[in-house]
Amino acid sequence: MAGTDWPEHEGYDLGPPSIAWLTWHIIFWWLMVLDHSFSQGTLSREQVKWPGDVDGVRKLIDDLHGRWVSRLGELTDGDLKSDARTKWPVQNRPFGDIVASVNIELMKNAAEIGYVRFLYAARQK
Fold first, then answer.
1. Phi, psi (degrees; rounded to nearest 5) at 49
2. Side-chain half-sphere of 112: how many Cα atoms within 13 Å?
3. pTM greater than 0.70
4. Distance between CA 125 and CA 104 in Å, rounded?
5. For residue 68, which phi and psi values (nearest 5 degrees)?
6. How high is the pLDDT of residue 78?
7. Residue 34 in this model has a pLDDT that exceeds 50
8. How far is Cα 51 from Cα 116, in angstroms, rounded to an integer?
9. Cis status, amide bond into 51, omega within 30 of 0
10. Cβ(28)–Cβ(48) under 8 Å?
11. CB under 8 Å to 64, separation ≥6 — which residues?
12. What is the distance in angstroms between the CA of the first residue and the CA of the last residue of the chain?
């Protein structure tokens, strides 16, 4: 799965997103913020690939979590109030707003994964 698998619209006719897409979205957010806030800032949605299986997803998400926690641990209160690192998905906001946005996206995607699992378990057999 690549970023090019992004749906053209978010209509109900598409049905719920797959767990694969939801895990890709978690990976996408973390990679984009890490790249645009702490690196070159050249990563695009189309370059973010899904690892291909649950073990790959688990390994990559664990790695991204570790990188994120490490980077945040280096920041001061002043860094969180500054907009110097705020380059994606918005600009001219305190970096603390980006940290909060990443947390919101993670919680939203985790809740969606839980709901997709519920729908799967409750389906008619």
1. -105, 150
2. 18
3. yes
4. 34
5. -65, -50
6. 98
7. yes
8. 20
9. no
10. yes
11. 27, 30, 31, 34
12. 28
